[in-house]
Write a structure and sequence with these properties.
This protein has two domains: 42 residues, no CATH class; 247 residues, P-loop containing nucleotide triphosphate hydrolases (Rossmann fold, 3-Layer(aba) Sandwich). By secondary structure, it is of the alpha/beta class. 45% of the residues lie in helices and 16% in strands. Bound molecules: adenosine-5'-diphosphate and magnesium ion.
Length: 305
């Protein structure tokens, strides 16, 4: 209970607090922000979770087939291995169909669509910690994505901000696969991210689309320091060089992932992290470095508001 009164006298305030009110606020024209803050804090809900919670890292690309989902899952595993005392979760928000359940081999029916239909008060941090599947070799909990286009169209997007905030309270690192969408569902998530992994490859059409995406993100207030560009050679084509790619998108490329032939597809088909399937491949080192750098950049991010 919050007492709201035009009476500013200390005796009155004291007696209200002694009678059991949690807060006493003097009614003024400016009382609204403190009232909202107090409600959020006392109810233990959304706004406080946003400040107290874990780090949010989103993955996106300008085009499908760039390797966004494979990198998201594998980097999540590497963050969990690098920070063994931390809880890591992956949320698949790709519409109309998610693919991470398939990559990690999750077959249950808890997913973003079914959870967004549950009453919001059920979606507590404990609910996620207790119910989201942890696939043993991957070391993270997964909130699977939409299983089919029909479900994807049904997704209640109004619940997404609450789901993300609750996830951030439950987990130290929440990695969200947004795929190539800059939709109504992804923009609020991007704007709250501590780090944005932007996946590109070396063909000029993907790069010029990426430039457009980056311009849009800048217009939305995203700074270059929050963007972590990964060049993934998902196709065997030679394509452009790293320097040429950087010039087109006007962003620095932080890491490059070489072409792996069928290795990625094989690891994905067997539902194994790349580093478990090919422990001796030098790519394992790249994954490890990316995970370390990304976790540290996300940790260091200073949040606005
Ligand atoms: N570096 C790479 N070398 C070879 N194949 C890759 C590489 N990265 C991704 N792939 C393959 O490319 C395909 C698309 O990857 P995926 O992660 O689903 O991309 P997206 O999520 O961007 O659509 C998959 O078959 C994956 O195995
Ligand atoms: Mg994908």
């Amino acid at each position: 209970m919050i007492a709201l009164s035009s009476d500013p006298q200390p005796a009155r305030i004291r007696s209200a607090l002694e009678a059991g009110f949690a807060e006493y606020m003097v009614k003024t024209a400016q009382v609204m922000p403190s009232l909202l803050e107090a409600v959020n804090r006392l109810v233990g809900g959304k706004a406080s979770a946003k400040e107290a919670g874990g780090r949010l890292i989103v993955f996106l690309s300008a085009k499908g087939g760039t390797g966004t989902s494979s990198l998201c899952a594998n980097i999540a595993t590497n963050i969990a291995l690098y920070k063994p005392d931390k809880h890591v979760a992956v949320v698949d928000m790709v519409l109309p169909i998610g693919s991470i359940a398939n990559i990690v081999g999750y077959q249950g029916d808890l997913n973003l669509v079914s959870m967004a239909e549950m009453p919001l008060e059920t979606l507590t941090p404990d609910f996620f910690l207790n119910n989201l599947a942890g696939m043993p070799p991957w070391h993270f909990h997964l909130m699977a994505g939409s299983p089919d286009p029909e479900s994807g169209n049904r997704l209640k997007i109004g619940s997404i901000p609450d789901i993300v905030n609750s996830m951030k309270t439950a987990y130290d690192y929440v990695l969200v696969d947004l795929g190539r969408s800059l939709s109504r569902i992804s923009m609020p998530v991007i704007e709250n991210a501590d780090l944005i992994a932007l996946i590109v490859n070396t063909d000029s059409s993907t790069l010029s689309l990426t430039k457009t995406v980056w311009e849009y993100l800048q217009y939305k207030g995203v700074e270059a320091a929050s963007v972590y560009v990964i060049l993934n050679r998902a196709a065997g084509l030679e394509g452009l060089t790293k320097a040429e790619a950087e010039k087109i998108i006007s962003l620095e490329i932080k890491k490059s992932m070489p072409y792996q032939g069928s290795n990625f597809a094989l690891a994905n088909n067997q539902h194994l992290p790349f580093s478990q399937k090919y422990p001796d491949n030098t790519t394992v080192i790249i994954f490890r470095e990316m995970a370390k750098e990304m976790a540290e950049l996300a940790d260091r991010h200073v949040r606005k508001n």
